[in-house]
Write a structure and sequence with these properties.
Rossmann fold, 24 helices, 13% strand
Amino acid sequence: MELIEQSAINTVRVSSADAVQKANSGHPGTPMGLAPAAHVLWSHIMHYNPQNPEWPNRDRFILSCGHACMLQYSFLYLTGYALSMDDIKNFRQLHSKTAGHPEYGLCPGIEATTGPLGQGFANGVGMAIAQQYLVSRYNKPGFELFDYSIYSICSDGDIMEGVASEAASIAGHLQLGQLVYLYDDNHITIEGETSLAFNEDVAERFRAYGWHVQSVADGNDIEAIATAIENAKKEKHRPSLIKVRTHIAFGSPNKVDTASAHGSPLGEDELKLVKENFGFDPGKNFAVADDVLTFYREKGKAGIQKEKDWNALYQKYKIQHPADAAEYELFSSGSLPMGWDNDLPVFKPGEKGIATRKASGKMLNAIAAKLPMLIGGSADLAPSTDTNLEGFQSFSSDNHGGRNFHFGIREHAMGAILNGMALTKGIIPYGATFLIFSDYMRPPVRLAAIMKIRPIFIYTHDSIGLGEDGTTHQPVEQLIGLRSVPNVMVIRPADANETVQAWRVALQHAGGPVAIILTRQDVPVIDQDKYTKASALEKGAYILSDCEGEPQLILMGTGSEVHLLLEAQKKLQQESINVRVVSFPCWELFDKQNETYKQNIFPKHIRKRLAVEAGSPIGWCKYVTDEGDVIGITQFGESAPGKEIMKEYGFSVANVIAKAKALLQQH
């Protein structure tokens, strides 16, 4: 190893420990052990341009073990990203770019928000799937536009988490050869040595998944690490795991290979010993020698020319393949083609009705040809969630251009993979399962909301109305759980036409994930010639049916329960009771409307309000006021035919009328 490289690696170690010590919070040991492996990536392997972190053909780097974020921040600063030494010194402080775990959109060069272990691992799989779809659609002979790799550093904690197992399984199955993961095998977790709870043969486990596996015995051997990565890059049909034996807090005389170096600062005295050990002045903090900074900045500048070469190639591509280039530029900008929504399905009222899950499937297939970057599927439930794109092939190991994705029974990984896909510009990903199983994917839903990215989650079988499957499959608390997550837009359409509009809104939304909540059972199609058109869904809540004169009562609801409100309104009007019916498919959209609109829907002086929704009533108090009530569910369901259990739990026209009259009789 050249002297400058050893000095550079030690600088990363010391500056990372300095930042944690100054913050009096963080994880110093892992960056110290991983510095050589990360050095190889940032100085010898990866293609990136600090002046343009969004260069489309850059290699992606994900620090799945996000607690080691000072490692990444150090390299971002040293290689020339828009990160200053003051930002490094401001680690973990209020409004800092350098948060306690890497955050997408907060610090330049961060590809994904990581921290909850295993999520970054699975995000990378989603990025690889998206990359392969771009390759299949846009690469042409002589124009390898998208040939980047996805690199990740993951820890024992990542490997232990179930989401990583799910994601590793599907990555091996799909032969995602552009994945290169370095496994930080340091034998330490917060509680002590990994042997306390973990003694499996990780290498053999990943071989069983279909991965290409190598081992590097010494985490300080940068030549061996570089050779292993180059070998991994040559393996085109298997994802690669490189097991690197490191030592947490390497260079610390008293804390190397100890759990105390994992989640706490080294301490001033120990940090001075580390600096002396590496030849640094123990009295100086955040010392970066000029030759080290020059070394890394030159590595960063190399990416400028790489992007220039790519841009020149892309200009030639635009001349020879103008339609493909225009399509890519359109979708990667976040825009949709003109006229994509000109011929959306329109459903007419009929005797039988249609389940909103089936209406969703018809909508998907109506727009699929116009939106070639719309790619997704379900967790082994496509026939039940109606998410198959008819006439399009499946994404498989033999066909990375297929648009129907089979996640298998891996809901947690599905959510995290969708996030990785959504982090790739130009891709519009969706994934489906039953609403009850949204519990299995809450971590990636939350992370999508934090990152403000827009995967589309389709959740069907949305209430006790699904019937005979019973308590285990009937969601009660899931709706309010999703609504409680900031930046998540939850839409529960009332009928087939609202479902079409839910998709229209979802595809045009920015700033967070969208969850579309759909029925298993058939629901009546609301007559748009008689009532307000479903396009009003974009306001979140709207007057579906009003009365002559001022309302005495406002009925509001979502999903399959809205038709009960319309029937109740008819009967109440026959008794000269003026009732307004409000369809309320999306709280988040309604809350964004101006006060004038809100007051038009819910005048302050009309205090008698009744909300009806087959889910937890928590949250409806915001809209029904202290003189209102909610017909909801505060217990688990049971196994019975859907219509019977809905009636048993109070979701009937008769009960809506009874509750409405009771409210009107109250003073």
